[in-house]
Amino acid sequence: MPSKPKYLPSNEDNKLINALIKIEGRELKYPELCRALDIPTKSGNTKISQLDKIRNYCQLDTLEHPTRYIVQEVYPEADALINELDKDSYQAQTTVRLHMLCDSQDS
Question: What's the 3-state SS for 4-73?
Answer without folding.
Answer: CCCCCCCHHHHHHHHHHHHHCCCEECHHHHHHHHCCCCCCHHHHHHHHHHHHCCEEEEEECCCCEEEEEE
